[in-house]
Amino acid sequence: MYKVVLLQFGAALVSVALGAMFFGTRGAISALVGGCACLIPSLLFAWRLSRTARTPGASHVTAFFVGEAIKIASAIGILAAAHVLYPGVHWGAVVIGLVVTLQANFFGLLVKS
After folding, report:
1. Structure confidence by residue, pLDDT tens digits, 21-69
2. What gap in Å lies between CA 81 and CA 72, rounded to an integer?
3. d(CA 43, CA 61)
4. CB atoms within 10 A of CB 52
5. Are the C-beta atoms of residues 41 and 74 closer than 8 Å to each other?
6. What does 33-53 look like in DSSP terms, one character per residue?
7. What is the pTM of this model?
């Protein structure tokens, strides 16, 4: 699980470089926000699942679905907070950050445990 999060971190760094290249400093910060909107909830989700896996008698299916709902809600919350706290956000760069970081999940399928 944590390998995918590391891949997402690398993809977020790539998206920051792309945001800087296309939109300048404002784009780099915005791409970082987009990457973090995917990366931070994924990290918390992986941590929660690994903790649940070590708990005897825990419902793994329930933990997965509750964790996924929290992950989606926190990603939306991070994007809403970015809109409020950073009025100069460049939404094109945010989308680049989100898309590139989300695509790291597909590369995570190629990584063997």
Report:
1. 999 999 999 999 999 999 999 999 999 888 888 888 777 888 889 989 9
2. 14
3. 18
4. 16
5. yes
6. HHHHHHHHHHHHHHHHHHHHH
7. 0.86
